[in-house]
Design a protein that fits this description.
The complex is a heterodimer of chains A (about 290) and B (about 375).
Chain A lengths: L1 H36 L3 E2 L4 E2 L5 H8 L1 H35 L5 H8 L7 H12 L4 H8 L14 H25 L3 H9 L4 H29 L3 H5 L8 H11 L3 H25 L1 H4 L4
Antiparallel strand pairs in A: 1-2
Helix pairs in contact in A: 1-12, 2-12, 3-7, 3-9, 5-7, 7-9, 8-9, 9-12, 11-12
Chain B lengths: L6 H9 L3 E12 L2 E12 L3 E5 L6 H9 L6 E6 L2 E2 L10 E4 L11 H5 L10 H14 L15 H13 L5 E5 L7 H18 L2 E6 L2 H7 L2 E6 L2 E6 L1 H6 L4 H6 L4 E4 L1 E5 L3 E6 L3 E6 L3 E2 L9 E4 L5 E3 L8 E12 L3 E8 L10 E8 L12 E6 L5 E3 L1
Parallel strand pairs in B: 3-8, 3-9, 6-7, 7-8, 15-22
Antiparallel strand pairs in B: 1-2, 1-4, 4-5, 9-10, 11-16, 12-13, 13-14, 16-22, 17-21, 18-19, 18-21, 19-20
Chain lengths: ~290, ~375
């Protein structure tokens, strides 16, 4: 047994070595560089390689950082909420209503938005939501409004709409998989034990789908916090998020150490929030079927 | 495995009880597929009733129509006199033990057992006491705090039972509850289920494809083939006097010999069969042949006859033959004996299977030796 396990371990390690090396090269190395930069001194257009914590104290004392970080968190939380709430019924429909032989076709349809680049999809939302966009000109032609609606462009609402659409498939798939794994006889058991369909959903389906919901939330939340394109285009540059602030420090102001410290701080905050979120859902996540 | 002694008394007591489940001309179509072809059935209060049949015979569908998980295409299902038309599963006075047990993996054992008590007006402590009592009844005292995904198959089954019985349903439906257990565990659970049923007095309806399970546990058994009930009887009657060759073949093993009907009186049918000669079969043992059968035949169980030494005589009649095959099972030995065609209408030798209990002092016979088969007319069933 022992030797079998060891050779299996060796086999496993051999298998993961190439992707692991790749991950180290393109993921860990840049991260470590950023981490190192965040402790260097800024020598205006150059980087002085001396250890300092000054960058971090500057970041934490900066009221602009506080506002932008908070805004990023709020936008990401809103996007996550909207995306997951909209994705759940879609995933439920896919899992419970669509006939088994049609499921792969439906999954295929859901991935269609991915055929277009993210950037172009964001631009398209600008076209749809803009002053002379599809919605405003449409409503004007119909005589429903006289002035263009302004609450749908260059603000948080428009960013939430755009990002929720962009991340919908990422939320649908994990929830769909969690729902697929639910033994259907559990739902019959819920009904059999006296609960209505709605209560069975609440007491059986939803708790068992939670691992998928948690995964979907993290998959949406983490990248939206760091999203750069949507605030720049849809937000009109007027409501920057943390990625825009990092970009400004790194490139526009050429203060790489401060930009790096911003990036590391933001990363730590996201990691902390994700861990808290996971801990809150521990009860649901430990269930193995 | 034997049925507990109280079974006969129990059968007598439920025979006159009020009807608990009545199926009247129940039909079920799935598109073109005709799953239930007119089921008429009355199950009495307090009865341990089994639906027995091969897979696809409609037994599970029938159970699910009683539970309310399937709508019926036509006919009526009544539970305790109430028509169940339009009554959803959660409002029916039935509870089910699922084949997969359907234990909620996100809940503890106690939360599983107490799942159906949400709208129970009792206080939290009273409910907890009821849960503990239900767990004790199924032999899981003190397991309440355990995570349900850590339970063994037998324990899951007990949790499923406790979870259903705590609601004191009028009918407990069991969908192949023992099929996932190993043999030892299954035999133990059979006895426990019978005891439990006598103790709570609830009507049990069991679905099974295992004829032994049905014989051991049931007061009455409905044997189903292709969406119809082929025979509805007590275990002994079903085994001793199957009304068709198909039922006889499904429940245990039966030897069949071609027969020729010679005559008939008010209380017996006279036949002639190879190896057996002329026999009078009592009317009670005369059953019908199935449409596919090739003429009339006479059948007997392997243990209803016995192997005796050549030349030995007893009170019974004797057929002669040669041992073709010997299969030793420890407690039993099965002999395949080729009966001589003597006294038959076509003179051909016929193979039959004979089961002998290996009691102390009885030697196992060898292949090729001649042997006599002792039989009595009362152990034969005629299918014509």
């Amino acid at each position: 047994m022992a030797s079998g396990n060891r050779s299996q371990t060796a086999q496993g390690l051999t298998l993961i070595t190439p992707p692991f090396a790749y991950a180290v090269l393109v993921l860990a190395a840049p991260l470590l560089t950023i981490l190192a930069y965040s402790f260097f001194k800024d020598g205006y257009l150059t980087v002085i390689r001396e250890f300092t914590l000054e960058n971090y104290s500057t970041v934490w004392a900066d009221p602009i950082f506080h506002r932008i970080m908070l805004r990023s968190l709020v936008v990401a939380a809103l996007v996550t909420l909207v995306t997951v709430v909209l994705a759940f019924p879609v995933a439920y429909f896919l899992s419970f209503v669509v006939a088994p032989q049609r499921k792969s076709m439906w999954l295929f349809l859901i991935t269609i938005p991915f055929w277009t680049s993210y950037l172009i999809r964001v631009f398209l939302w600008k076209v749809i939501l803009g002053y002379n966009g599809v919605i405003n000109s449409g409503l004007k032609t119909l005589g429903i409004i006289e002035q263009p609606l302004t609450f749908i462009l260059y603000n948080v609402n428009s960013m939430v709409i755009t990002l929720a659409h962009a991340y919908a498939p990422f939320a649908i798939l994990p929830i769909f998989i969690a729902l697929e794994k639910i033994d259907r006889s559990l739902l019959e058991a819920g009904r059999d034990l006296g609960e209505s369909r709605a209560m069975t959903f609440w007491r059986v389906t939803l708790p068992l789908a939670m691992p998928g919901v948690v995964a979907a939330s993290l998959i949406v939340f983490i990248p939206t916090i760091g999203d750069y394109v949507t605030p720049a285009l849809i937000g009109g540059g007027k409501i920057p998020m943390i990625a825009n602030m990092i970009q400004a420090q790194m490139l526009d102001l050429d203060n790489r150490p401060l930009g790096s410290a911003l990036a590391v701080t933001a990363m730590l905050i996201v990691a902390l929030i994700s861990l808290i979120f996971l801990a809150l859902n521990w009860r649901f996540l430990k269930v193995r079927q | 495995m034997t049925t507990p002694k109280s079974s006969t008394a129990h059968r007598a007591s439920v025979a006159g009880a009020k009807p608990m489940i009545e199926c009247r001309g129940v039909q079920k179509h799935y598109g073109d597929y005709h799953a239930l072809r007119g089921i008429d059935l009355t199950i009495r209060a307090g009865e341990f009733f089994s639906l027995l049949g091969p897979s696809g015979c409609g037994k599970t569908t029938l159970l699910r129509t009683i539970a309310g998980f399937e709508d019926i295409s036509s006919g009526a299902v009544l539970i305790d006199g109430q028509d169940m038309e339009g009554v959803p599963a959660n409002r029916r006075p039935t509870n089910m033990v699922f084949q997969s047990y359907a234990i909620f993996p996100h809940l503890t054992v106690a939360e599983n057992v107490g799942f159906g008590l949400r709208r129970d007006p009792r206080s939290r402590t009273e409910k907890a006491a009821a849960v503990e009592e239900a767990l004790e009844m199924v032999g899981l005292k003190g397991y309440g705090a355990r995570a349900s995904h850590a339970l063994s198959g037998g324990q899951r089954q007990r949790v499923a039972l406790a979870r259903a019985l705590i609601l004191k349903p009028k009918v407990l439906l069991l969908d192949e509850p023992l099929s996932a257990l190993d043999r030892k565990m299954r035999e133990q659970m059979q006895v426990e289920l019978i005891k439990l049923q006598r103790q709570v007095g609830i009507t049990f309806v069991l679905v099974t494809h295992d004829q032994e399970e049905a014989l051991v546990m049931s007061d009455r058994i409905a044997v189903m083939f292709e969406g119809q009930i082929a025979q509805l009887d007590g275990p002994e009657a079903l085994y001793a006097r199957p009304t068709s060759r198909r039922v006889a073949n499904f429940i245990g093993v039966m030897n069949f010999l071609p027969a020729r009907v010679l005559g008939e009186t008010a209380d017996a049918v006279q036949i002639e069969a190879p190896g057996l000669g002329r026999v009078d079969i009592p009317m009670a043992n005369v059953s019908r042949a199935d449409p596919g059968d090739e003429g009339p035949s006479v059948g007997f169980r392997p243990e209803a006859v016995s192997l005796i030494a050549p030349g030995a005589q007893g009170a019974n009649r004797v057929a002669e033959g040669v041992i073709d095959e010997v299969v030793y099972y420890g407690d039993m030995t099965y002999y395949d004996v080729r009966l001589d065609g003597s006294g038959s209408f076509d003179g051909k030798a016929r193979p039959v299977r004979i089961a002998m209990r290996n009691v102390f002092g009885r030697e196992v016979q060898d292949v090729g030796t001649r042997a006599n088969v002792s039989w009595s007319p009362g152990s034969l069933v005629l299918f014509r």
